[in-house]
Write a structure and sequence with these properties.
With about 230 residues, the protein is an alpha+beta fold. It has a five-stranded mixed barrel with strand order 4-5-6-8-7. A two-stranded antiparallel sheet has the order 2-3. This is DUF1449 family protein.
């Protein structure tokens, strides 16, 4: 068993031998902070971002449904919960197991393992533990995507412009929920050439061309008062 030079020492999260696990905890804090302030595009309800390079009639399918890759994601528990939740769980378990391994090694041999070796052991142990923990979570949380939907099924749905300003020739990012309640991010231009739809406004998707949707601001659909 490899030993950390220097003999007996007091375990510390910020010591060199715990660096991989301190980084993991730091990433958890950073992602959590971004989620709180709304910078990160992480949605605990299982949001999915549409791949703009897929075929126009392609389906957004269950990530656990395709061959060897699907078997691997099922084994790891991916798709049981939103990926953000899976990642946060994995990082926490990785840090917890890693520091436990270092503490055990220190008690057993008088010094912790080399960081890369401890990280390798913790990473291998964290994957099955994470998969085991997220399965019960998946029963009480929405999954990333439980049913395949076609892009055309989003036409007629309401969305909200989240990033940018939608105008002719310059689509903006919008968040739209499908009939299953899952959210998708799509690019939207105004249906009317002269219209401009700022961030925060709601829009009704009325048609699609390729990967771009065209929408009507919901405010414009209200009848103007009679003079």
């Amino acid at each position: 068993m490899a030993k950390w030079p220097g003999g007996e020492l007091k375990m510390s999260l910020f010591a060199d031998y715990n660096l991989p696990f301190a980084i993991a905890l730091g990433v958890i804090l950073l992602l959590g902070f971004l989620q709180i302030i709304g910078v990160g595009d992480f949605d605990f309800g299982g949001d999915v971002e549409l791949d703009l390079d897929i075929d126009a009639d392609a389906e957004i399918a269950d990530p656990t449904s395709a061959g060897l890759g699907g078997a691997l994601t099922t084994l790891l528990g991916l798709g049981k919960v939103p990926f953000f939740v899976w990642l946060m769980t994995f990082l926490f378990i990785f840090a917890l197991i890693g520091m436990g391994v270092q503490g055990f090694a220190d008690e057993l041999t008088g010094s912790p393992l080399y960081p890369w070796l401890a990280a390798l052991i913790a990473g291998g142990a964290s994957l099955p533990v994470t998969a085991t923990l997220v399965r019960p979570l998946g029963r009480i949380m929405p999954q990333d995507e439980t049913s395949a939907v076609r892009l055309d099924s989003l036409v007629g749905k309401r969305g909200t412009i989240t990033t940018g300003k939608a105008e002719k020739g310059s689509p903006a990012r919008a968040k739209v929920r499908d009939r299953f309640g899952h959210a998708h991010y799509v690019m939207v231009e105004p249906h009317e050439d002269a219209a401009v739809i700022p961030a925060g406004d709601q829009v009704l998707l009325v048609r699609r061309e390729g990967q771009t949707f065209f929408g009507v601001p919901l405010a414009e659909r209200k009848l103007a008062p009679m003079n």
